Amino acid sequence: MARKKIIPNNHEKKLNKNDFIVSKTDTRGIITYCNQIFMDMAEYSEEELLGTNHNIIRHPDMPRIAFKVAWQMIQSGEEFFG
Q: Are 61 and 54 in contact (CB under 8 A)?
């Protein structure tokens, strides 16, 4: 699958009060589940996301250390909520 280049557009997307963005990955970061809200926010279909590395949606301005900490937790068997 060709990966879309992430280009920040300065367009804010808002969640409703009770919305949750949910994704599950294996310990290598491969997406195994995502809910509809995640797909809507990421602007990808389920087919495009499942089996793909989670960094497909990484914003280029997000500090890499945030993901390093998350993946350290996941690889040690802990769940990460963020």
A: no
pLDDT, tens digit, 9 for 90 and up, residues 4-31: 666 666 778 889 999 999 999 888 889 9
DSSP state of 62: S
At 35, give phi and psi (nearest 5°). Answer: -85, 170
User: In the 8-state DSSP scheme, what is residue 52?
Assistant: S
Tell me if 21 sits within 8 A of 80, measured CB to CB: no
pTM: 0.73
Which residues sit opposite 23 in a β-bridge? 34
Torsion sign across C-alpha atoms 30, 34, 38, 42: positive
